[in-house]
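Data availability (excerpt). The following record was deposited with the supplementary files.
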Amino acid sequence: MAQSPSYPSPLLRELQENGFTVIRSLLTPSELTTLRSAADSLTALARAGSWPYIRTVGKQFPPWPSSLPSDGSGIWGVQHLLHPDLPLPQESKDAFIKLYFSPSILSTAKQLLPEGTTDDDLVMELFNMLVRPDKDFALSWHRDDIPATASAEEEKDRLVLPATEEPRYHHTQWNLSLVDNDTSLVLVPKSHTRPRTDEERAADPFEPNLPGQLVVELNAGDVAFYDNNILHRGVYSSQKERTTLHGSVGHVAGASSGKRARNVLQHGVGEWVERCDFSALGERGEEARERAEGMRERLVRMGRENKDVGFSLDG
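Predicted structure:
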């Protein structure tokens, strides 16, 4: 009989067993105000066509075009919040940097990565933003790095170990809302440990009521960490504001994996990451800046070791 695993963190237990965990009020009111201002400014620029790294309505997965849709449907995301060329005041650019490399985010990430993870194991990955579109838009049910065409056996091979065995995560992904009443993320709890059921395979890709689904409700400052291969979708209303920071942090043990490299590098982060300036983190001490530099270097190394990664999914 398999022995139940020992979890060093209650957060890891919840992530491993359910596929997601929510932390309430991660940000202070001051942090929320600063980040919301920066996010609103960048979103306005992206909607005006002044920032080319966007997620366009009608296109679910990368690569996305750099121009706005001709039908006026707009965008549902803004890419590369750590890009050195963001057309924002330095204070706003620094706000994104300080959040991504904050003790709150990184200490949580370390709890959700393999036991014993230290700063020297962390890998800088992605930091983007999800926003209200100008036309209602929904993502199909999907797993971020497993195509819908995968067989049950292929899914089983790619998913995390069942909860009765030792948990192993080499990255963690999160959504942090800057506004109240964010209900865009819909998922099926526990589906990260099993292949899709026959009913899930037969369902319409945009089925609005999949059995067992859960709407994740976030208010301003709340963050949901989730397994990116849990069965999930996004539902975007043009009538409801959404400003959600969307990031991931990796573990060096997974950085050499072609699958993880593809999931990260397909977004184009390797094209600019070496130019990032993390000097603002020096306000927190040299250790904070050096931690970020190390995370960036491990991402650069991932790019050197994995060329022409292609794209995870079509559509």
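Summary of structural features: DSSP finds nine helices and eleven strands in the chain.
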